[in-house]
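Hi V.,

You were right to ask for the full record rather than a summary. Here it is.
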Amino acid sequence: MRGGIAMKLAEMIGTVFGVGLLRPASGTWGSLAALPLGWVLYQIGGFPLTVIATVAVFFAGWWATVRITADGKDPDPSRVVVDEVAGQWVALMPVFYGAMFAGVEVTRLWPGWIAAFLFFRLFDIWKPGWVGRADRRHDPLGVMLDDVIAGVFAGLVVIALAVFYHIVIL
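Predicted structure:
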């Protein structure tokens, strides 16, 4: 792929077709964009497709971030929000799996969607433990990994809240 075409493709992927250019809080916009995209994927192919798409977006995002940051000026440009999409989908995995397991429409698990979004944003901004460690790599892999790890943390909170609700409250 020629340099100009590759860079345009990298910008499209990295900014999630321009979502990363929205201000303020481009990361939050990227996370919000991930919600309907995740719903569409789930409608098309259920849990298996959401897993495959998450892995594909991770690697495509890593590729795009390598190209976007190649000039060395900014190791984590705010316009790159593909990492938020991957991380948000990881945070939603318990919801997608739960809907598949229960055989219900995924939107019926709306409290999980809200928790996944809020806790993903919390961990992505706060950067506790491994999230911060990945962020401090200051390289394209770190850009992607900190959000995936924040998504794992958020997903664990979603699971804990679901267990609490189904065991303690019900």
